[in-house]
Amino acid sequence: MVSVRPARSGVASMMSLSIRFSVWLDLLLLVANWGKNWDCSFVLAGGRAVVCAVIFRPCIDIHKGKVKQIVGSTLRDSSNDGTALVTNFESDKPPAEFANIYKEDELIGGHVIMLGADPASQAAAMEALHAYPGGLQVGGGINLENAISYLNEGASHVIVTSYVFSEGKMNIERLKQLVDLVGKHRLVLDLSCRKKDGRYAIVTDRWQKFSDVFVDEPTLKHLAAYADEFLVHGVDVEGKRLGIDEELVELLGRYSPIPVTYAGGVSTMDDLERIKRAGNSRVDVTVGSALDIFGGDLPYKDVVLWHKEQNMYFHKESHFQCVSRTRLQVQDLHLLRAVGADTDVVQNWRFLAPSVLPLAAIVYSWVPKFA
Predict the structure, then answer these.
(1) What's the rounded Cα separation, in Å, for the pair 331 and 356?
(2) What are phi and psi of 130, to 5 degrees?
């Protein structure tokens, strides 16, 4: 017995043809850009623009076992130089309490920074990682000997500066050893910097020493091959709540080929919007001393709300809460478009075309069912 498939209406057939054409045209664009990273914003074949979203990255800074907010440029290994440590805030709450707050608000990719190598700070950092496993990165004194232990204790990534940028120079062999040990996908490079002769020089050893490596296009492109993300403190404004380093944010947004987080000087909601504009929506943001949970005037809840507003899908009829930018894949976008989703605002999804091409057949076979 021969089954006969019911004929579809002309409208349905045209819809199916249109969707197939749009999907295949997008896939053709992927093939044409084989191996290249997409820019932050572009227009799909369907005519809808893809716009990046900025992520708020929370922080827990630990000094001598306590959660503190310190003016970074005053941090020293000793007090012999006569410079007094300037502390904006010191909390009686344990690090785990802040980690639990971030966990409840579903904030990921935040960082725990140990501002000292003392055992109390290390224990406090572990406490935060245990409270929110997989949700926080950790930095401060990370090296080949301890990197794996922090990952095993729950850190999503390890953050490295001084171990790689030592004695004023970049030690590429150490960097390669770290990548071999933990994997590129678990490594964040801290490129915190200060202005020197009109350029941004990476600073190390608690931001006390200038290196001969500058944050610029060649450096960012070179180091992107060894890291999953960059973390950049604008040290000249960090902890002072006097406004952001807009020039630095613009540089990062223009040249960083991988996710990058900026920290330094945020004091108002307007500063968040300035980072979004200056960084072309490609630069994530950390807020510290200005937050009310750290003794400042900027409501933490307002920042979280702003973050969530940046990171959702808008559908014709309802809202879809989107996944983390680092988890969003191009196939998600194609599937949404196939069912008529009007994706006006989408996470910043930077991907390599080869990673999605094997899914072409799945997308093609799946789409007509919705026509």
Answers:
(1) 7
(2) -65, -30
pTM of the predicted model, to two decimals? Answer: 0.72
Distances (CA, A) of 348 to 135, 224, 255, 313, 340: 19, 17, 15, 12, 20
- CA-to-CA dists, residue 188 to 21, 99, 341, angstroms: 40, 19, 34
- Residue 200 to residue 198: CA distance in whole angstroms: 7
C-alpha count within 13 angstroms, C-beta hemisphere, residue 132: 30
DSSP letter string, 329-343: -HHHHHHHHHTT---
Domain with CATH 3.20.20.70 in the chain: 59-310
pLDDT reported for residue 62? 94
| Helix locations, 33-108, DSSP H | 95-104
Amino acid in position 111: H
Report in angstroms the alpha-carbon separations of 286 from 44, 140, 244, 290, 336.
31, 17, 11, 10, 30
Each residue's pLDDT tens digit, 1-59: 444 444 445 545 554 555 555 555 555 555 554 444 333 443 333 333 334 578 999 99
Task: State which CATH number among 3.20.20.70, 1.10.10.10, 3.40.50.2300, 3.40.50.720 fits the domain covering 59-310.
Answer: 3.20.20.70
